[in-house]
Amino acid sequence: MSQQQTPQLSSFIAPKYWPTWIGVGLLTLIAFLPFRLRLLGGAMLGKMLFIFANERRYIVATNIKLCFPELSKTEQEQLIKDCFIENGRGLIDTMVGWFRNPKQFQTMLDIKNVEALDNALAKGKGVVLLGAHYTTLDFTANLVSLQIPFAVTYRPHKNALFDALMLRGRLKNTNGVFDRYDIRGTLRHLKKNNIIWYAPDQDYGSNHSVFAPFFGNPAATITAASRLAKFYNSPVLLARHHRNDITGKYEIEFYPFPEDYPGSDDVADAAYMNQQLEKAIRLYPSQYMWTHKRFKTQADGKPASPYIAIKTPVNKMDRQHFNTMIEGSKIIEEQHSKNLTRILHNNALFRILPLSSSKFFEKPPMQLFDTNARLLRLAGVNSITIDNIFEIKSADFIAATYFPLYGESLAKIQHSELPVDQLADFFAKVHQLGFFFTQVKPSKIYYANGEFSIANPEDIKVFPTSICYADRFLNIQSLLNKLELPENQRTQFAEAYMAATGLERVSEFTQLFSKLLFR
After folding, report:
1. Per-residue pLDDT averaged across 93-120, rounded?
2. Rounded Cα distance, 281 and 302, in Å
3. 167-177 per-position pLDDT tens digit
4. Does the CA dihedral 70-74-79-80 come out positive or negative?
5. Which position among 138, 174, 335, 364 has the lowest Cβ density within 10 Å, counted as fewest Cβ atoms?
6. Under 8 Å between Cβ of 139 and 89
């Protein structure tokens, strides 16, 4: 897109944009308050977001747990709350940057080591200025622009109105705003010995990325910054910016990268960049936007993503696209036309389920399929990972793609090779965690590398505590009967199960279990 084109705000008067107008309007009112009141209003907003933004709270908590394992649980919880407070303040600061004159606040800026930036510009090759998504991003950038002209790259927002406001706000004080895909425009700007402010700290997927450590965790790290710098041999600097609550100033400090950066090794370059970003973030960790799924992309795919609790996206699909998708696929399991599993040409599994349950007050099968799979994995029980859910236009069924489980199903394992003790431990764990099989299907329980996995989460009922003795008995009786285990293995299973659950002395359960020995 052209760096100077912004849509007219009058084109966003449709009712679907009204909530955005109201939200931005309220935030802008707070933005015109005095500094201390803005901080207070932002903190209150952040506390509200902490309470109500459940998914974002989970993402922040997951990131903090991964990146700060040295902190105690109490310290991690406090940092999570502080992050939301700073995000609330950051939203207010953003509105100040977009809608107020930055000259009113220029005395609040404290620039450190500007000589490093001057020396880089003196080389005449442009400068790649690496930033990050701190909560002070837009406000500090607008203050810096009063003294140092620069252009920025950005990713368009999904909300068209918010995107237009963001673009107008950033264009107001910079000398260019480039879509992150506008490489030509960015390079032209760099060639004129200008500064490009680029933030490489988000997960943009595996394309054009390498995996490099970030806070000790593998993170998909985009290589665009290195490629930009290599084009004209431009010097690279890191910019960290934070609000110093002691001085009341917004600090920005420039750190030059080595002259031989970037090198010939993309992974080494990405690792060094992430290391420098980490050092800057650790100075004021609560002022970094931990609300992004930084570790979403993993080398082993979505099943390895740490954000297990995030609901699977539901996408609309027309019938023609659906037919194209299943073309050449093979049905590997079928209960009826609206409950079957296909294997697609890319080896992904494609599950089709009815739109609604046949039982009154029961959740729709796809909701159980998705929710229970995530609940099992969150509890430490291996289960499937759903990639996408599709609503098919004018269809009475719903579909999902998911990743296959590895190993052999119990139905295919010979009695002599069945790890009975481990199977008993697995069922004990599942029951203790409050999971009950409404249908025990040996063909849907997989075993590989000493671990079991559940492939039919829609047949799981979830309880808040460990399940009762009668339900345990029903599950185990069904399992042992369907596996047709001999007497000695039934006894072995019963003893191992009771040992694993600590129920050996519970007479009621022991009496129930004795019935399992007689078929």
Report:
1. 95
2. 27
3. 888 888 888 88
4. positive
5. 335
6. no
Helices first, then strands: H and E counts in the chain: 16, 21
- Cα 212 from Cα 203, distance rounded (Å): 12
- Is the pLDDT score of 509 beyond 70? no
Q: How far apart are CA 145 and CA 142, in angstroms?
A: 5
Q: Specify the DSSP class assigned to residue 288.
A: B
Give the CB-side neighbour count of residue 125, counting CA atoms within 13 A. 14
Q: Which of 322, 313, 314, 312 is nearest to 393 (CA)?
A: 322
Task: Look at residue 297 and tell me whether its pLDDT is greater than 50.
Answer: yes
* DSSP-derived secondary structure for 145-209: TTTS--EEEE---SSHHHHHHHHHHHHTTSS-EEETT-HHHHHHHHHTT-EEEE---S---STTE
Q: Say what the pTM is.
A: 0.90
Strand partners, 177: 152
Mean pLDDT (the chain) is 92
Distance from C-alpha of 406 to C-alpha of 10, rounded to nearest angstrom:
54
User: Which residue matches tokens 């310290």?
Assistant: 75
Q: Which of 123-132, 138-147, 172-181, 444-453 has the lowest mean pLDDT?
A: 172-181
Residues 6 or more apart from 334 whose CB is under 8 A from it?
340, 341
Question: DSSP for 112-145?
Answer: E-HHHHHHHHTTSS-EEEE---BTTHHHHHHHHT
- Measure the N-to-C terminal CA separation of the chain; round to a whole number of Å: 72
Spell out a b/e string for 153-180, using b for 16 or more CB atoms within 10 Å of the CB, else e.
bbeeeeeebbbbbbbebbbebbebbbbb
The span from the CA of 161 to the CA of 7, in Å, is 9
Residue reference for tokens 């992150």: 180
Name residue 388's beta-bridge partners.
401
Beta carbons of 350 and 400 less than 8 angstroms apart: yes
pLDDT in tens, 370-410: 999 999 999 999 999 999 999 999 899 999 999 989 999 99
CA nearest neighbour of 79 among 55, 63, 91: 63
Helix (H, G, I), strand (E, B) or coil at 504: coil
Range with the poorest average pLDDT among 40-54, 162-176, 363-377: 162-176
**Contact in structure between 143 and 108 (CB atoms under 8 Å):** yes
Identity (one letter) of the amino acid at 271? A
